Recover the amino acids of this structure.
């Protein structure tokens, strides 16, 4: 999937006459997809799913800009077992910690969820006699994206391009269920040389908070069988 | 000392290296020609002998367009002309020794060869020029439509001299320049 566009209108609303006010439709539907304030908007995303979102976002960003396919940037993890033929943006996980939820800047909070925390419990409306419990676990991640190009000038341009991309698409990442994304800074320029062929790298770090939600279900106790025997 | 000509093609007791290499490259019955067709990418110079920069060269970094195709210089940053040249090629080594294998780097696998090319003394070569390997068919003919197969930067152009100091042949120590757009975008 290259486009990030989603159709949130119901089939009935698509057939409305022209007099329907778009604003009302939008507000109604947006309210429908918006969860309570204590939840992420979309289903919680893991770190791997975040990488997939970045790839989708890049493809969308390039297609909107009308970039020809031959100039599309390659997006992959660092040290991939594939040929480096074109411009590449690589990612690497630099740090991953239990999520902090006390006051302070990212990674600085004293209070962290060191084990899954119960978020919700109740009776499952779809399965009578079943109870459910939802646990959540925050992860604070530091992800480094490095923009590689064959020249310094292109690496510099690509780094600024990537910063713009992440800024423009932060709202979409959050809509998709990533809790928080913050720009964490740009590192020292890098150069990789193989037989005088150079790659110039520009590392950009981002703080990404992801979440793991697990649902447990159990049935109510219905009967207890006791098997008694006597010894003589 | 024997006066028998050991090298009949030159009629001398000593090898005429210029002629020997010419015979090796072009063939001299019954010797079969060993050369392959390649292109010499000769950089243009102005009247003062300086190279002429391509408009794609950046004012600050002095770099050409390599990640995007420049139809003028193909990523060399200078204006050039290509002419056919006969060469004999020997693969030399890569960074990891006398084997040709990929090297893992952060952006992906890299494999740039180092090679030595021999060519005749008549070739007007400098170490500012480049060699372009062409796609050949199995019999050694240039495949049409023409396609560039590899681009080699001449690191050292060694002028091998012998008889009375005359130039006998060129030995070109080269490394491969990896380019995405060898044959246009």
């Amino acid at each position: 999937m290259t486009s990030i566009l989603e159709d949130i209108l119901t089939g009935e609303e698509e057939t409305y006459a022209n007099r329907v006010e778009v604003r009302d439709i939008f507000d109604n539907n947006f309210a429908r997809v918006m969860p309570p304030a204590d939840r992420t908007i979309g289903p919680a995303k893991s770190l791997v799913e975040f990488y997939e979102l970045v790839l989708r976002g890049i493809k969308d960003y390039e297609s909107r800009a009308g970039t020809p396919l031959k100039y599309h940037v390659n997006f992959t993890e660092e040290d991939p077992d594939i040929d480096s033929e074109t411009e590449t943006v690589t990612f690497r996980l630099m740090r991953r910690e239990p999520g902090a939820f006390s006051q302070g800047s990212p990674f600085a909070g004293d209070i962290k969820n060191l084990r899954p925390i119960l978020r919700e419990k109740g009776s499952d409306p779809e399965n009578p006699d079943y109870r459910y419990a939802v646990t959540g676990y925050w992860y604070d991640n530091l992800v480094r994206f490095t923009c590689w190009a064959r020249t310094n000038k292109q690496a510099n341009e690509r780094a600024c391009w990537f910063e713009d991309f992440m800024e423009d698409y932060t709202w979409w990442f959050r809509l998709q269920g990533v809790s928080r994304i913050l720009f964490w800074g740009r590192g020292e320029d890098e150069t990789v040389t193989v037989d005088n062929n150079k790659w110039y790298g520009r590392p950009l770090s981002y703080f990404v908070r992801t979440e793991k939600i697990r649902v447990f279900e159990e049935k109510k106790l219905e009967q207890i069988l006791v098997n008694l025997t006597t010894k003589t | 000392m024997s006066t028998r000509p050991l090298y009949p093609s030159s009629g001398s007791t000593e090898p005429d290296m210029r002629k020997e290499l010419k015979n090796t490259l072009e063939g001299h019955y019954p010797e079969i020609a060993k050369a392959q067709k390649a292109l010499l990418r000769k950089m243009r110079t102005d009247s003062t002998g300086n190279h002429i920069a391509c408009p794609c060269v950046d004012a600050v970094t002095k770099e050409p367009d390599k990640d995007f195709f420049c139809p003028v210089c193909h990523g060399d940053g200078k204006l050039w002309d290509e002419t056919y040249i006969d060469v004999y090629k020997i693969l030399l080594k890569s960074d990891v020794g006398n084997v040709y294998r990929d090297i893992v780097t952060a952006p992906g696998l890299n494999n740039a060869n180092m090679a030595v090319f021999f060519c005749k003394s008549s070739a007007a070569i400098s170490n500012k020029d480049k060699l372009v390997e062409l796609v050949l068919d199995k019999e050694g003919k240039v495949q049409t439509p023409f396609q560039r197969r590899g681009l080699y930067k001449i690191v050292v152009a060694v002028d091998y001299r012998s008889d009375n100091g005359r130039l006998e042949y060129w030995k070109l120590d080269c490394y491969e320049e990896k380019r995405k757009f060898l044959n246009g975008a």
Notes: The mean pLDDT of chain A is 88. The helical segments of chain A are 11-14, 22-33, 47-65, 152-175.
